[in-house]
Write a structure and sequence with these properties.
Layout: H1 2-21, E1 27-29, H2 44-56, E2 60-62, H3 65-68, H4 73-88, H5 105-120, E3 124-128, H6 133-139, E4 147-151, H7 154-160, E5 166-170, H8 178-191, E6 200-206, E7 215-222, H9 225-231
Parallel strand pairs: 1-2, 3-4, 3-6, 4-5
Antiparallel strand pairs: 6-7
Helix pairs in contact: 2-4, 5-6, 8-9
């Protein structure tokens, strides 16, 4: 029985690893907190199983019977949330695709942004995106740095919710002036309490707003200084 469980865990690790290599979203599901269908507290094995899935790099964990027909749907969601948050604190920086050759400019920008963020003490990344592709590539890199997918499209906001470490933001680029766009992006992050004066922020965007796959700019800005630049 123990051998079968070890083999199952190893298989799961391989599948998650392979999916991430292919830049695919990974959801780990089925009987994650099975005991909580009848009991208000998960077993130790279930806690470890969920935590290991997070440490292995899964984007999302999914419940089924535990929340649909279980006796403690709220408690199981709360328990799952706590485990995931604590497990994410233990993730380390990723070496994902450091030796790869990129086939697209927007993919290269995404990888450059994450490498810079991991080595410069950046507090937040704001990606102006049409489809979420840049955000998905970014989310493959472990960093612990929040990635804000800023888009006007509701389907894209729904999609990026599945990406690890990514948060959708309703944002419509109302100006063609780059300084104005940068200003509005950082002001939005300030309103959310994500950053404060002195923090470094990375913004990725494209020269051609509203066109898919056109992300070709990475901008590093310090919160507070963005207002001075906007005045100029």
């Amino acid at each position: 029985m123990k051998l079968a469980m070890r083999n199952c865990q190893q298989c799961k690790k391989r599948l998650i690893s392979r999916a991430r290599e292919l830049n695919s979203v990974v959801i780990t599901a089925t009987q994650m907190m099975q005991s909580m269908i009848e009991h208000p507290i998960p077993t130790r094995a279930e806690v470890f199983d969920v935590a290991n899935a997070v440490l292995d790099g899964t984007d999302a964990v999914m419940l089924s019977a535990e929340s649909s027909i279980g006796r403690y749907p709220v408690k199981v969601v709360e328990a799952l949330d706590r485990i995931c948050i604590e497990a994410e604190k233990g993730t380390t920086r990723s070496g994902h695709r450091l030796d790869s050759v990129f086939g697209r400019v927007d993919e290269a920008i995404a990888m450059a942004a994450m490498y810079t963020a991991n080595h410069l003490g950046v507090k937040a990344i704001a990606a102006l995106t049409e489809t979420g592709s840049t955000v998905k590539w970014m989310s493959r890199i472990r960093s612990g740095i929040p990635i804000y997918a800023m888009t006007r499209f509701a389907p894209t906001r729904r999609k990026v919710k599945l990406f690890r470490g990514a948060y959708p933001v309703s944002f419509d680029v109302a100006s063609t002036d780059m300084h104005e766009v940068n200003y509005e992006v950082i002001e939005e992050l300030l309103r959310r309490g994500t950053v404060r004066n002195g923090d470094l922020v990375i913004i990725t965007k494209g020269d051609r707003s509203g066109v898919e796959g056109q992300t070709n700019i990475m901008k590093i800005m310090r919160v507070g200084e963005h207002r001075l630049l906007n005045e100029d």
